[in-house]
Design brief:
Layout: E1 3-5, H1 11-23, E2 29-33, H2 49-55, E3 69-71, H3 77-91, H4 95-103, H5 111-124, H6 128-137, H7 148-165, H8 169-191
Parallel strand pairs: 1-2
Antiparallel strand pairs: 2-3
């Protein structure tokens, strides 16, 4: 863990440390440390380090240690901004972009998130075995239907629905014919007992 002290230095240094704490691409803990007197320290031109060390009550035998460091509650702005960008891409079914964005801040969340996004990307590309493998890493059952032709048809229809919702109308129209072919083949196999 990295601790960033927000209480020492010039106002510019404190602001820079706080900005650093909320924008780095990995988790840090910003802290405030109070003085033993719990008020500002004013420097003295005649400051004697040895005398101050001897007079420090924290150094006295049997002195109780007082926890003067307090964690500052703050959230990492970089993570918040990138998380919102990833959510927007997920809502638009742009899983590769969401994966790309979240790779920069993956220390802020569970590895399961990345596994599920990889699974979604494979599922979108109709790579069902790879999607299943990735979802199992997150201990998540991705597929509601698991039987051969029915699964292929169901997943293909889901993909068509996503293409329609996301405005990929040329791909949607082009994909209808194979979907109808699969549907008719399933119908002939189940109802007419004929395999093509």
């Amino acid at each position: 863990q990295i601790l960033i002290n927000l209480s020492s230095g010039t106002p510019q240094m404190k602001s820079s440390c706080h900005m650093l704490a909320v924008t780095v691409p990995f988790p840090v803990i910003p802290i405030q440390v109070t003085t033993p007197n719990e008020r500002e320290n004013y420097g003295s031109p005649n400051y004697d380090v040895e005398k101050s060390w001897m007079d420090n009550v924290d150094n006295a035998p049997g002195a109780e240690s007082i926890q003067r460091a307090k964690m500052v509650k703050s959230e990492n702005l970089r993570f918040l901004i990138l998380r919102e960008a990833a959510i927007s891409n997920i809502e638009a079914y742009n899983f590769p972009a969401a994966l790309n964005i979240l790779t920069e801040v993956q220390e802020f969340f569970s590895a399961d998130v990345m596994h599920l996004l990889e699974a979604a990307q494979h599922r979108m590309n109709m790579e069902l075995k790879e999607a299943d493998d990735a979802s199992k890493l997150a201990q998540y059952d991705l597929f509601p239907i698991r039987s051969g032709d029915a699964q292929d048809l169901f997943e293909y229809m889901l993909r068509l629905g996503i293409q329609q919702k996301s405005g990929q109308l040329m791909d949607y129209v082009r994909g209808i014919s194979p979907a109808l072919t699969l549907l008719f083949e399933c119908f002939l196999g189940k109802k007419c007992k004929r395999q093509i």
